[in-house]
Amino acid sequence: MKRRWLGIGLFLAAGGLAAPGCAVKGYDYTNYRAHPPRSILVLPPVNEGTDIRGSYGYLSTVTRPVAELGYYVFPVALVDQLLKENGMPTPGEMVQAPLEKIREIIGADAVLYITLKQYGTRFQLLASSTAVVADARLVDTRTGTVLWAGRLAAQEASGGSGNILSAVVGALLTQVINQSTDRAHGVAEQANAQLAIKDRGLLHGPYSPQYGRE
Amino acid sequence: MSRTARPALLVVLLLALVTSCAPSTLYHWGRYEAVIYATYAAPGSVPPERQIELLEQDYQKARSENRPVPPGFHAHLGYLYYAIGRADQARQEFETEKANFPESAVFMDRLLSRIPTP
To answer: Do B36 and A60 touch (CB under 8 A)?
Structure first.
């Protein structure tokens, strides 16, 4: 009898421990809703990957998903230029800019910080794969509160099918195309689309018809 | 046109093709992000004059469809005009950005104050 109760007790305890994990329905937007931004400044990503084109290849794909969610997104190239002229030549230096300064000079409600973990194409003998992985963080410029944070990732494989000759040709072609068009740029667009995933990405902003309905 | 300009232009055109057939969106995107990408991917390959031409075409298209251009579009265009010394047009674009998106006022006023008045 005692054993049985112990068993039930353990079961309940285990359930209690597991429950918070199971109860994850979506992102906790408490802070986000407390400081809803109208405008978002996207800083050039800090690149921890090996491809030097990463920062700006990625930067040129962020405006669209964030603006389509209903936010004012500051002109990314213009902001980049302004920061460079003000003694911040690299993304690594730009992310050090104090929030109150960003608020004063640009007037942004929130800043989207992005760190690229991976950006580029890995070539193997018969195939190649392109991966983009980025960690993003939205921070309120008034209070420094993190409103949202998440990982954006996408991958695209090519080759590996068909007869051996065409696969070899395919891999060659992919490399040639990659050199001029930077395939990771397209994959970055896919990764960024995740900013708009319901219950996981950013909430809708004031220019969206869905604003305030989530 | 220089040889290096060709791949960059191809990028712009390909991206334009991809973005132009997107489903319903808040904004008419045109080649705004494609132009930004091309200038970073191959610096100097697409001169500001050409970028202005592309964006002005996009703007006309958006107007003809009665759709807004995205946030940052007019500001970026103003920056391009400023880069080639056309202060009047730069000022006008920054004012348009501010009128369309009041959130940009602090930033646009700062840029406007930098343009020397005639």
So the answer is: yes
